[in-house]
Amino acid sequence: MISNKNQLTKALVNVADHELIRLVYVSKISKATRSDPLLFEHIRLHAEDYNRKNNIKGMLCNDHQYFLQCLEGQKQLVVLLMQRIFDDKRHNKVNIILLKDIKEFIFHDWRMRSFNLDQRLWTPTSLQANSPELKEFLPFNPLTWSPWFIEHFLKTMQKFDDSHQSYEADQESYNIIRDPQSRMISWFDSGVLHWVLFGLVVLLLILLINFNTLF
What we know:
alpha+beta; Alpha-Beta Plaits; 5-stranded mixed beta sheet; 8 helices; elongated
């Protein structure tokens, strides 16, 4: 497996800069990263602008331990992106498990669609729980997968990419990672902010009523 920038450069020495490649890497999510309930929202926002400008497509998925990301695009642009990914402190032990030149994209969206394969976080109504074809990829341990099985996984994920599911449709189970051991909960996820706003509105109404009573 390829695990650093130099190895990646050597592996692609016979591929022209303008040619398309498909790259799949697996990495270990850092402990600090697991406590961020909006992790994938941050990744998506930072990735979308770069991917759109450079016509890079693919998908990102995870469980509570691993990232798996597929990147498709021109060699020179994907390599530049991978150099940043190798240096990203939100994960470690980055290993490229699939690397090949291709004639066409299998993913059609420059947005880095993300998918949570941590079965512990699925809800009965989530897209994952209602997709029986995902069962063969669980438990999610991509470092043990053969090249054929990786390609099979990508083709399965392509179906979800083509379905044009919204990022926000099922945010908790679709594109947000949360460590079950962590007690850090986003205000937006927990609904606390909604209750605070509701309380402020009620308080304002009470003050207005009292003001009208006095005058």
